């Protein structure tokens, strides 16, 4: 059995989310630490991280409308090289040079997809939940992952940080899965049953490159 395609989650797997949440805090006029703490709290409760924004606007908030307002004010989503983890570009390049198909697919906005494509990363395709109209952990998301990856489920690895949204549904769809231990959700849920379902648990993308492209190919537990 060989790996033919590697598909990556985006937030906290490839992209640090410091800028994302910091810019939301600035827009909402609250200290960055306040929003960061609320994000951690709602996720620990198993809730959508966007509920942190809703807590700050208890009378109601249309998050999509707020995104449009931010864009109109010139304060929308942005991304540059400093937002990537240091190992991202080299690892993606090494995987692609080894002949694997490399795809990015996560729960992000259309704008984030555009920004990622503009960075000219060494990947074959970029997709976001907003573009597909379906979000993880919906099984349809992973059906589309397989379609975009172009390989059989057992020959595809999905790499992500959030066990309940990345590892469990990927395994349910028949994919191999690598849990990368970085970003708050990876540490928060590191000892869960969902995290234990991963074929590999890694601390860096360079580890993944070694596993998938090593001299004897991938080894399976």
Kindly give the count of domains: 2
Structural class: alpha/beta
CATH superfamily assignment of the largest domain? HAD superfamily/HAD-like
- Oligomeric form: single chain
- Using DSSP, what is the number of strands? 6
Termini distance?
12 Å
Report the total helices.
12
- Note the beta-strand portion: 5-15%
The strand line-up of the biggest sheet is 3-2-1-4-5-6
> Under CATH, the topology of the largest domain is which?
Rossmann fold
- Rg value: 17 Å
The major beta sheet can be summarized as: 6 strands, parallel
Overall average residue pLDDT: 93
H-E string: EHHHHHEHEHHEHEHHEH
Outline type: globular
Q: How helical, in percent, are the residues?
A: 40-55%
Low-confidence stretches: none
What is the class of the largest domain in the CATH system? Alpha Beta
> What's the architecture of the largest domain in CATH terms?
3-Layer(aba) Sandwich
